[in-house]
Amino acid sequence: MSMESRGQSPWHPFFPSMRRNLIRPCSPLLRIHPERSRRAEQWPAAESRGLRRRVKVKVCGITNLRDARAAVAAGADFLGFVFYKKSPRYIAPVKAFRLISCLPRTVRKVGVFVNEDKERVKAIAAACGLDMVQFHGTETPAYVNAFKACRVIKAVRVKGRRSLEGLDKYRADFFLLDTFRKGRFGGTGERFSWKLLAPLALQPVRHKLWRTGRIPPHGCKDNGAMGFSSWGSTKKKTKFIVSGGLTPDNVGELLQVFKPYAVDVSSGVEKAPGKKDIGKIRQFIQKAKKAAVSPIK
Question: Which helix (H) or strand (E) holds 285?
Answer without folding.
Answer: helix 278-290
